[in-house]
């Protein structure tokens, strides 16, 4: 059965998109899983990382991004076609089992009007159910669906939450990056209760960890208990930090460049080491832990 996971943080620059792409490529390449990335973020970074700018511009011109799906509901048009929009065999690793539903920067033009979808569809579709009503049946053949959400809890993000089994929070372990985490957990808990959803927190993943940073070390001393406290106060089943910490490394950002030409996953993420380990080893450990949590 497909497992659907939204990747969420309210703060930018915490490796939310990088985490999504790393997990997707590792699941497809190293674990033989059939994976779909749904890019809901108007910044389109996951899209560009997986298909490049030229291909994105082509499918945007053809009206086959998720912006067009939402815009169809606002304008009563039928431009978006799920079969044409589904990009297969993506990534510069040419992974046959990895697919993408692309985002568009034009999401920015309509994100404040998504609340009008209910009225424009004569209340047949809720603003939170555009994905569910239009593409859910087409994604059940995948093993994993990873949703790269915008850095907010607006209607677009709620479309991802609506269809998700879990949500994953990537964060740098400093105060500013973790400040909004209680808001994420509380808002998703409240939304899930109102919508009768069974979504659960998969965990908090520490990203861009710098072992020589005093603020990171202090953060790691307090973060596990601060995270547990959120769930205690809401009186809901707890979640925990992932044991794997993804280190800060320039090579990780460079690996997101579609114009690179790696021949394997391990080459793509193994150009440098952090400590005494290649970077790809951290991603594989993360993916093993991700699978164990998602399948439990």
Would you give an account of this structure?
The chain is an alpha/beta fold. The protein is 45% helix and 16% strand. It has one domain (3-295): P-loop containing nucleotide triphosphate hydrolases (Rossmann fold, 3-Layer(aba) Sandwich). The chain has helices at 16-29, 45-61, 66-75, 82-85, 107-110, 117-120, 130-135, 155-163, 175-178, 181-195, 214-234, 250-254, 265-268, 279-295; strands at residues 3-7, 35-39, 87-88, 98-101, 144-148, 166-171, 200-209, 241-247, 273-274, 277-278. The protein has an eight-stranded mixed β-sheet, sandwiched between helices. A two-stranded antiparallel ribbon has the order 9-10. Helix 1 crosses helix 2 (45-61) and helix 10 runs parallel beside helix 11. It starts with a strand and ends with a helix. The mean pLDDT is 95.
Count of DSSP helices?
14
CATH architecture: 3-Layer(aba) Sandwich
Radius of gyration, whole Å = 19 Å
**Number of DSSP strands?**
10
Structural class: alpha/beta
Percent of residues in helices comes to 40-55%
Overall geometry: globular
* CATH class assignment: Alpha Beta
What is the N-to-C order of secondary-structure elements (H for helix, E for strand)?
Answer: EHEHHHEEHHHEHEHHEHEHHEEH
CATH fold annotation: Rossmann fold
Strand arrangement, major sheet: 3-4-2-5-1-6-7-8
| Total count of domains | 1
Give the terminus-to-terminus CA distance: 13 Å
Give the strand content.
15-25%
Q: Could you tell me the mean pLDDT?
A: 95
Can you summarize the main beta sheet? 8 strands, mixed
Relevant CATH superfamily: P-loop containing nucleotide triphosphate hydrolases
């Amino acid at each position: 059965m497909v497992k659907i996971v939204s990747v969420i943080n309210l703060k930018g620059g915490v490796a939310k998109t990088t985490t999504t792409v790393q997990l997707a490529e590792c699941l497809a390449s190293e674990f033989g899983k059939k994976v779909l990335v749904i890019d809901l973020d108007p910044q389109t970074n996951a899209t560009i990382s997986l298909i490049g700018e030229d291909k994105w511009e082509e499918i945007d011109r053809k009206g086959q991004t998720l912006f067009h799906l939402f815009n169809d509901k606002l304008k009563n048009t039928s431009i978006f076609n799920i079969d044409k929009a589904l990009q297969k065999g993506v990534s510069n690793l040419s992974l046959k089992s990895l697919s993408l539903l692309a985002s568009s920067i034009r999401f920015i033009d309509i994100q404040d009007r998504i609340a009008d979808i209910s009225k424009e569809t004569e209340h047949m579709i809720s603003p939170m159910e555009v994905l569910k009503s239009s593409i859910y049946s087409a994604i059940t053949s995948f093993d994993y669906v990873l949703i790269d959400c915008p850095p907010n809890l607006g209607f677009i993000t709620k479309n991802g939450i609506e269809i998700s089994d879990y949500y994953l929070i990537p964060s740098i372990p400093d105060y500013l990056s973790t400040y909004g985490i209680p808001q994420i957990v509380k808002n998703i808990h409240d939304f899930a209760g109102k919508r009768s959803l069974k979504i659960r927190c998969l965990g908090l993943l520490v990203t861009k960890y710098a072992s020589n940073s005093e603020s990171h070390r202090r953060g790691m001393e307090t973060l596990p208990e601060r995270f547990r406290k959120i769930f205690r106060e809401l009186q809901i089943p707890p979640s925990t930090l992932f044991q794997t910490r993804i280190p800060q490394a320039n090579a990780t950002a460079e690996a997101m460049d579609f114009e690179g030409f790696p021949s394997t996953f391990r080459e793509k993420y193994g150009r440098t080491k952090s400590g005494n380990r290649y970077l790809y080893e951290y991603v594989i450990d993360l993916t093993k832990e991700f699978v164990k949590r998602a399948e439990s």
